[in-house]
């Protein structure tokens, strides 16, 4: 397969907390769960470090003969060992991340999706197949209503965002709640996994939720539109469209959201001729 990748931070003065990479037989995308300014996480390294460290270790682990969930669980344990002596890994706001991982062989493509990043397969002769984990969205639907009623960028919205993030923490990595990659290797077993035949996939896209907004939050594009944009304009072209939409609604009045602009990352792979 041939791949293109693009990533753009949500704000130039804050680190990009997404991570994506492609190896010889695998690709990964992680979206670090950023904490609102002024929120302590117990980790001196921060969310961006966590996402790129876990992502790099996971990509390496996918080269071995292990299940995708096994590779993710082992990689979480390795990250824990890297900063257990310096950071409070039991803190409620310890860094976490969504995970999308794919690994391909001669005949099949295996996949893993944990939390709300998105994997889209362009199925040959069929509609796109979308794989995402909506448990956080289901939990957060009621919790986010006070935040969504306020204009993005106001002090009131910032306070509501902090309250929302704190309320979500009570449901994170718990039965009946939602699951993300942080310090508990068992979260890997809660991921959505599966496989598709390689000859049935014309292309595939791994998207952080900052890049999938046109389709799943703004309703400005279908998944077919998204794949067509990626084919014609590449990942950078899709992100430019997302930014134009965000810029048209800077206060979040049309599309309520936690951030006016989010980190946006796309990995796009297509079958070689």
UniProtKB/TrEMBL annotation:
InterPro entries listed in its UniProt record: PPM-type-like_dom_sf, PPM-type_phosphatase-like_dom
Pfam family, one: PP2C_2
Organism domain of life: Bacteria
Domain PPM-type phosphatase: 15-234
The protein's name in its UniProt record: PPM-type phosphatase domain-containing protein
């Amino acid at each position: 397969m041939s791949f293109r990748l693009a990533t753009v931070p949500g704000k130039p003065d804050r680190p990009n907390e997404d991570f994506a990479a492609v190896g010889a037989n695998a690709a990964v995308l992680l979206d670090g769960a950023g904490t609102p300014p002024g929120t302590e996480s117990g980790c001196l390294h921060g969310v961006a470090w966590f996402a790129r460290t876990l992502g790099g270790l996971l990509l390496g682990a996918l080269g071995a003969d292990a299940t995708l969930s096994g590779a993710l669980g082992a990689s979480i344990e390795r990250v824990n060992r890297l900063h257990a002596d310096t950071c409070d890994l039991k803190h409620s706001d310890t860094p976490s991340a969504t995970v999308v991982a794919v690994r391909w062989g001669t005949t099949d493509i295996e996949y893993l999706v944990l939390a709300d990043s998105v994997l889209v397969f362009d199925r040959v002769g069929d509609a796109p197949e979308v794989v995402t984990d909506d448990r956080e969205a289901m939990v957060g639907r009621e919790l986010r209503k006070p935040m969504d009623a306020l204009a993005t960028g106001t002090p009131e919205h910032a306070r509501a965002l902090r309250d929302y993030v704190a309320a979500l923490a009570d449901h994170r990595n718990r039965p009946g709640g939602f699951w993300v990659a942080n310090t508990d290797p068992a979260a890997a077993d809660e991921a959505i996994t599966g496989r598709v035949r390689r000859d049935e996939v014309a292309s595939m896209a791994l998207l952080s939720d900052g890049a999938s907004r046109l389709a799943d939050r703004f309703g400005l594009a279908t998944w077919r539109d998204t794949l067509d944009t990626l084919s014609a304009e590449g990942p950078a072209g899709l992100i430019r469209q997302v930014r134009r939409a965000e810029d048209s609604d800077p206060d979040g009045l049309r599309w309520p959201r936690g951030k006016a602009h989010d980190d946006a990352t796309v990995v796009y792979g297509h079958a070689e001729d």
